[in-house]
Amino acid sequence: MKCKICSREAQNKxxxxxxxxxxxxxxxxxxxxxxxxxxxxxxxDELVKNPYTGVWAKEVAxxxxxxxxx
Length: 70
Hints:
- The protein is mostly helical and about 70 residues long.
- About 65% of the residues lie in helices and about 0% in strands.
- Helix 1 (about 15-35) packs across helix 3 (about 55-70) and helix 2 (about 40-50) packs antiparallel against helix 3 (about 55-70).
């Protein structure tokens, strides 16, 4: 199976690097939600715009945004 983002080998939807970013996005959401009273889509949008968000996390967030539109 290939990663949805980069086509590297993957166990699930993502390769090891994108999976790590995905888990981090999920874990941090509760903190953002409490601090800013923000929804999932808004959170993902903020991650993509944030200059301090890593490349891997931005790529995952972009995929998650596109999946929420479907």
